[in-house]
Amino acid sequence: MSRKLKKGYFVRGEFVAEGSERDIELKAELKGTDDLSRTDLKRESTELQKLGEALLTLRGDLLARLPLSDKFRDAIADAKRITNFEGKRRQMQYIGKMMRKLEPAEVDAVRAALDEQANGSAAENLALHQAELWRDRLISQDDAAGQWIEQYPTTDTQQLRALIRQARKDAVPEKPGAALRHGRAYREIFQLVREALGAIPDPDADTPPFSASNEAS
Question: What is the dihedral of CA 189, 195, 197, 202, to 10 degrees?
């Protein structure tokens, strides 16, 4: 079987593979950049390689949103299937090479997707914050349950009020000066509220979700 030739070029009798460190150095020299710029290019190449490796851990829905070619997606799928160490290493180098060919906006999209997976989207974080505020308000304010039920009439009223009573009971310190503790009811109220609010609150809804300004009024 003939060996597949690497893409590259010859410089003074030396073969330089595309995407290699030597390739980066030579291109930097052609551009008239200094040693510091070449170091920056090498650092950028290393970062892109790591981003490419991180793509293997990205959730399917986030990966589907990225502006990647079918060839790139196939390369990621192949890398996930490869178990041989050397084969995996070569495949990851290939993915790193493809990362270096992406446009800056496409690289930014990859970074954003990885950040969203690690830290959650802005909408998800807002929904969690709203749920926390509602949970604390339901436990601390007597009129909060009625206001919640008015906005979310499908709520199991009996269940909600029972959870609130239990959460308040659990929050009473066993001894004076002891730290507050949160029991199962506290967590179940949060889950109930979280599911009712949904993943993405609608800022244009007629009955907006609870906010800190509502609590102050």
Answer: 170
